[in-house]
Amino acid sequence: MTLTQGLRVRLAADLRVAGAVTAADDPAEEPAAVAGALLLGAGTEGVVERVDAPEEPRPDPEAAEYERLVSLLESFGAQMPPASRERAEEQARALEPAWNAYRNRRPVVTARVRLDGGLVLERVREDVLTAL
After folding, report:
1. Higher confidence at residue 77 or residue 31?
2. Would you kindly state where each structural domain of the chain is located, as residue ranges?
3. What local confidence, expressed as pLDDT, does residue 18 receive?
4. Which positions ≥6 away from 131 have C-beta within 8 Å?
5. Mean predicted lDDT score pLDDT of the chain
6. How far is the CA of 104 from the CAs of 56, 63, 101, 132, in angstroms?
7. Residue 121: how many CB atoms within 10 A of its CB?
8. Which residues 6+ apart lie within 8 Å of 1 measured at CB?
């Protein structure tokens, strides 16, 4: 599903907002918790008000190390001692699955959704919404 502004959507999963729920007019220095959590049930409907720019996934340490090793081999592999080059190639081969997994991850798309009951969800991921 592609999120667009004005699209009617439904929550596909129950959502739990953790942390203290406070009254909006409480002083910022001493907010008093009025509830322990806020739960939103699957099936709650609303409208997409804004679609946020997708966030590119960050590489995990193994994928970043693969990228570093490949760059090193491309730039200086011909000048490296054979044993060092072979060790770097072997390490890169071992890290290639992590690199492929990173490259196959999709960017995370989020949106601002105003629910029919008046609640607003900020930065809600598209995978917990279904189009109506």
Report:
1. 77
2. 8-56+107-131, 61-104
3. 76
4. 1, 7, 8, 9, 10
5. 89
6. 11, 12, 5, 28
7. 22
8. 126, 129, 130, 131
